[in-house]
User: Fold these one by one.
Assistant:
Number 1:
Amino acid sequence: MLRTRVRAGTGAILVLSLVFAILFSALGSFDLVVSSWAPRFAEPTSVALRVPFGSRIVQMGDGETSHIAYEPARMIIPPYTVLDESLASHREAFAYESMRRPPRLLRIGALFVIYAALSLMLAAYIQRLGQNRLRLLRTQIGVFALILLMMGVTKAILLFTGLPEFWSPVAAVPLWIALAFDRRSALLINIVMAFLAASLLRFDLMFLAIALVRGMTVILFLLNRRKPRSLLLTGVLAGLASALLYVALATVLEGGFDAVRDLGRLEGSYLLSCVGGGALAGLVTSVLRDPVERILGHVPRDKLLDLTDIEHPLLKKLAGEAPGTWEHSRAMANLAEGAAAAIGADALLTRVGAYFHDLGKTVQPSYFVENQGKEPSPHDDLAPEVSADAIMAHVVLGTKILREGGIPEPVVEFAYTHHGTQVVEYFWHKYQEQNEEPELTKDHFRYPGMKPQTKETAILMLVDSIEAASRTVSPPSKDGFEDMIRRVVFTKLKAGQLDHSNLSMEDLHILTDRMSTALVNMYHGRIKYPWQRQQERKPAQSFTTPHPSEVKPLSEPPPEPPPEPRPKASPEAPPEASPEPPPEASPDPPPEASPEPPPEASPEPSEEVTEASPAAPAHA
Ligand SMILES: [Fe+2]
Ligand SMILES: [Fe+2]
């Protein structure tokens, strides 16, 4: 039984949300149950005491001249500060902490409801509208774990430092999501992150607004995904944007903002913390990108580059045991990598996927046309249903071999999605022809795989068919290739194989154009050498007796094949040697120009070719 990736269902989403709501609630309130952390006068505090921003009624002046006024205030008493009862700020912080301790069950219950609602909203949104890879249960667990980790970091900053809360690098989470998936999902995760972070400080409005804006800005400013320096710059720009917002908010809520006084506080400066928090988010995103990608179920680039090494034991096995399949995989890799890059998909992952996708063919290589050579096909002696089973087995066996070989799951995914849930048409039709009253249904000839869930795996599915069908296009013109690719794409669309791939119509247009151009360049016309043209005409000459008057003596020995192609008639071919006019550049490639025979030359159908039926009807 083939084990494919698990998409998060409604039940899983519910359980996941509740589990994380419990963990978030515990993280939000655990410090209030640690009795040794409770503040006491005349003793140093164990953790920082923070009074969230808000307007308070204060008494101004003394005696008869005193009056009551509103004063916006925010207070941070760093850890290890000896609480002085004579100071109003210490008394206020002490009063606020005493009010919170010990936490009431009702308060924890209310927090749990808020966290559960946020988690459910996030999980449900991702499941219904998020990118396909985000809908996998494994990825959703990774996303929630990442949010929990960042919440833990924010909580640690709030508890164990006296720094302003804006130093928290919460914006790193939406940035990681934008890098690994898409900006739309990152935007939603940013909203949830901002609320969760603010909840650690009694839903502080300033903290919420800064976290929200900084997260949105990093998503918008994210320009170059590859360069770490660009990520840092993105963070700094977001920090500057949040500093601007802070000044505006402070002016609205507090009636003004004294920048000089704020900057004079250095590590306590809110402006610096806004910019610093943004820069820290960019730095953390860049430095921890690889481990975070692992948490999110991605393969780090270094690992992918390792897998492109043709000395990898599994690739050596493929090249040694199924050389035809290895050449097919390499041809696909070039085509698929260019196509993926053209639509902004992960080109390197697609290349690696192409290398490994058919590894299951190493178990019985002779069942596949590209490995048969001149040997008789084993399918000659098999019933069509048995042949279909043998063909389809390479998906399951390939998945098994790759998993046992420690290949990362996103690469293994190419093995069980590159045929999707298509039918092995050739043997299905053969079976119908041989059995007037068929016992088996079409589903018995259906691949036991999964429809492509990502753009990368969908590209490989298309390229698998296109690479095989491209050899049947004659002449190899751009129009011919475009027509063939459109037919392949249409067939896959019609069969519903691209339904979960996230490929847009625009992507398909770009892919068609990019792949047809690549194929024209792969199969571009070669100039025939004079000796090749002579060889082509030899059979006709052997049946023609020339008139004695037409026979000319050879002035030179027959020419040797030239080492290099020439754009014009070769001087090595003297006119006397050939009765034909001098050869000109030919648009047709010589048969030898192709490293692989055209599918028509094959006595057996290829499972790839059978699925490229619109372009290769002879095999379908
Ligand atoms: Fe395959
Ligand atoms: Fe293949």
Number 2:
Amino acid sequence: MLARTTRLSIVGLVLCWVAPAAAAPTWTFQGKVVEGGQLDAVRGPNDRIHIVSSRYYQLDASGTVLVDEAQGDGWQGSLDFPPAIAVGADGSVHIVTRHGGSFANGHNIRYRRRHPQGNWDRDYLFGTPVKRNYVVGVSWSEGPHVHLGSSHCGTQIWGDIHLFEAGQSSATPIGDLTGIWRADADYRMRGLANRVMLVSGVCDPSGTVFFGCGSAGGTLATEITASLHSHTEGTGRRAFPDVYVDHVGGVHMTYGGANQVYYARHDSEGNELLNGDRLVFDGLGGWSLQTGLSAVAASDGGNVVVAVALDGDNSELAADSNLLWAYSTNGGDTWSIPADLGKNTHGGAGRRRPRLVAIGNAFRLLYWDNGLSGIAMASVLIEVDDDEDGYPAGLDCDDTDDSVFPGAAELCNGVDDNCDGEIDEGCGAPDGGSGAGPGEGGNPGTGGTPTSSSDGGQGGDNASNGGLYGACHCTAAGRPSPGGVGYWLVTAVALGLRQRRRPTSACPRGVID
Ligand SMILES: [Ca+2]
Ligand SMILES: [Ca+2]
Ligand SMILES: [Ca+2]
Ligand SMILES: [Ca+2]
């Protein structure tokens, strides 16, 4: 009788329990972390964040500066584009910056490598100084192959991207990407495994953004050219793409449309994975070309994607721009309604764009902060509730089973249903003993999931046995058995809860398509 009273209390608790809405992600602002204006930032081994701006920095995930070294010769002018950085799996750091020269005579482009042991062991110029060669890129791929890129368009506003493979003391040209770049439209390149991904844009009145990829090495330019894919959502200008490669080969890109930012996704072979690009930000204030500026990053598995966009002030430099953000937990298919981060940044005609870095489901935003006059960092953790039981993975001890969550009724089934760290507590099966028979066997907390009663009949139940209680042996201790009134009551309640927990409205997601 006592057991039944207890059981009914559990039922009552279950009835009163309401699945919590997934908590809205909250940003933490760490303030100014490093000096500089334009920047690039990537995640390296041991979750270090590597930043190049006017100096080179390594930060830990909390924003503490661990390495701070001189970089370059003050090459950053107000109209310059950002430097570029790549970090290899071996910990090597690769940086491309401008290094002297002039707009009239052309800029010198410099490549430096920082050896994993910390010494700078490569330092040379590459490419040809021309008027508009100031957008640079760098990628690291297995081999290792380090690829360098430089924009190149002489007296025209249109031009090519010249690609190189970095050697110990010089860079070898490996081909040009023709006509996919415009002087004020930026491009980006990233490596993954033995692949290189590249995005670029031509922001004419009917502009196009390009995605291409290829194998690292001498055929890269040829392969990228053969794989070029156009993105032309919306109307008007399109340009300023960003690209982020997750750990399983997903390639995430954002690009600006006319006062908009779109998201697109490819695999590392170039196949497009979404049926149409997604409009993530709309109605953005722009700069002189009215093209949205953005950054993107994704979790290691690629299901969580975060994007930021600049809501510019419609001036030439977008010097007073609000930072907006949005996120997706389903691989960029649907997106949250954009929100204002409450931070003011300087668009700098695309040259002071923010960067996003992902560490698991935690994202770091590095951006120029107008109020702090430096590069600031902000962080957000996007909690994912894969089984949609109302508890994100960080709180849910089994995010693949929607009947297991904090506060669930503890059933005699060999698993910790309520996530309190104990298995089948209250089931009445004492510890110790081995194989004496049903209901008095070993401790299910350590016994795992027996596959037959010959294991000793402990309270553990293999889920494959079926049912909430399945072949639970706890009936000997007074727990409900299949077919009993209590069993069906609890089952009905649990099933009802499952029904109620599933609505997608539990997540504060907007759907923009
Ligand atoms: Ca969950
Ligand atoms: Ca769960
Ligand atoms: Ca438990
Ligand atoms: Ca249990």
